[in-house]
Amino acid sequence: MAKYSSKINKIRTFALSLIFIGFIVMYGGIFFRNSPVVMMIFMLIGLLCIIASTGVYFWIGMLSTKTIQVVCPNCGKATKMLGRVDMCMYCNEPLTLDQNLEGKEFDEKYNRKRSK
Ligand SMILES: [Zn+2]
């Protein structure tokens, strides 16, 4: 079983690390105080990272509207799923819509029954 967290958590981690990278890059710019142009470039890159992370957070917000609430069979908590296969946000239990397909409005697209 692959060890990874749910997609939304993963994107959230990515957005958070972007903020950190942004601050580290901006902090790095301080070492180039003597050349304002280089410092400006560092500050700009750092700022871009932070702006990008804001964009990613916005994207998470958009994605959250597309998630499906399911009750995790393992820990019993209501978790959000993105796509056909995702992980529980609390216990990383792998969840599949293929198993829990019970007349959810979603299935048409993803539920490809093996009919060869
Ligand atoms: Zn769970």
Automatic annotation (TrEMBL):
Membrane-crossing segments per the record: 12-32, 38-60
Membrane topology field: Multi-pass membrane protein
Superkingdom per UniProt: Bacteria
Pfam families named in the record: DUF2614
Annotated keywords: Cell membrane, Membrane, Transmembrane, Transmembrane helix
Entry keyword Membrane: yes
UniProt record similarity statement: Belongs to the UPF0295 family.
Name of protein: UPF0295 protein D1970_12565
Organism: Mesobacillus zeae
Lineage, top ranks: Bacteria, Bacillati, Bacillota, Bacilli, Bacillales
